Amino acid sequence: MPVNIRPVVSAGLAGCCTIFSVIAIVILLALGSFFSRHVEVLTGSNHDPKDPNAVAATCYAAALIYGAFVVFCGLQMAVHMRYPRGVQL
Description:
Elements: H1 11-36, H2 40-43, H3 52-82
């Protein structure tokens, strides 16, 4: 029995979300890595976080959430590729 899957978001929005999510994952993983290593530029001031390891864990969790967006939007792009342009869904 074929599954009738319809896209939730437009193809342009899915592509934009995928690109921005990949960029966000790279940035958050870099920040998480820097905070977990206690880089002095990020942790040496009086106004910086008291627990850099907690900040690093939060950055890694946010990167996982953006990873879920990459999967969802990538699947949305795949659904859009299944249907030719101009077909009423």
